[in-house]
Amino acid sequence: xxxxxxxxxxxxxxxxxxxxxQNGYVPMKEVAQRQELSLKYxxxxxxxxxxxxxxxxxHGKGGGYRLVKRPEEYTVGDILRISEGDLxxxxxxVSGAPPCNxxxxxKTLPMWKKxxxxxxxxxxxxxxxxxxxx
Amino acid sequence: xxxxxxxxxxxxxxxxxxxxxQNGYVPMKEVAQRQELSLKYxxxxxxxxxxxxxxxxxHGKGGGYRLVKRPEEYTVGDILRISEGDLxxxxxxVSGAPPCNxxxxxKTLPMWKKxxxxxxxxxxxxxxxxxxxx
DNA sequence: CTTTTACCTACCAAACAGGTTGGTTAAATT
DNA sequence: AATTTAACCAACCTGTTTGGTAGGTAAAAG
Lengths: 134, 134
Hints:
Largest interface: A-B, 30 and 30 residues
Number of domains of chain A: 1
Oligomer: homodimer
CATH superfamily of chain A: Winged helix-like DNA-binding domain superfamily/Winged helix DNA-binding domain
Shape of chain A: elongated
Strand content of chain A: 5-15%
Mean pLDDT of chain A: 96
CATH architecture of chain A: Orthogonal Bundle
Strand order of the largest sheet of chain A: 1-2
């Protein structure tokens, strides 16, 4: 539940691409150096972002990754949900979780749902561009 | 990070005590049955709540636990921080975490801090009484 | 002295976090 | 054609956390 290195690194790579990807593809070797992250670990994270259409990857010399949209068109929520999975703060609310037979009478469930909504709303209100401007 | 069964069960036990503790101490055997939780697991969770002064425990027949304050005087935040530990959504912000040397220039840190504040504020604004009234 | 109940310690299996190793495939350069 | 670069993929690995269970001991009441 919630944000581990996977999601945080994914965000930092996306920010790096936004800052350094004006002229074409950016190899992860450079990103890894700038961000002080393990190249191999980044390589494990990126394919999901490609699959979901957030970035484009090109093999070989002169290759690397690049954003396919403008920074203001990516929300932090999208990036985190793709790299991390569900952003639910409790297992009860994770999509695909076994249904709880106490849900009807549960005094705490509405609170978890409200928080879940707050968290998603928070992340969906922030774009890559917002973070760049800080 | 965030809310596992420990914190969720602690909350449910506290709510059960608030509902069923009018006349004295409530044995965990009863709570476990009502809440459909493992008695042994509850027993592992309770001592922290005693230590922090949220509840009082009494041994032997007629014993059990009881709240020491009125339901409206307990915040969900207090209960969760005691049972779960830090409510930070990212490891960077957990108190006692190794300081990050990129913190100064980190583009994402302010966002994590803002969320952290939101989450704590959210839980601190809800009391046991609020949950009972739902 | 028996019952009840809190409390304590040790253990355990499964899952997850946070990677590393060792490749293969594709594209460009020489 | 050979080499280099870089994405991509599969398997493995170590440590920690989660969600408990087992088997008690200590205290209070009847």
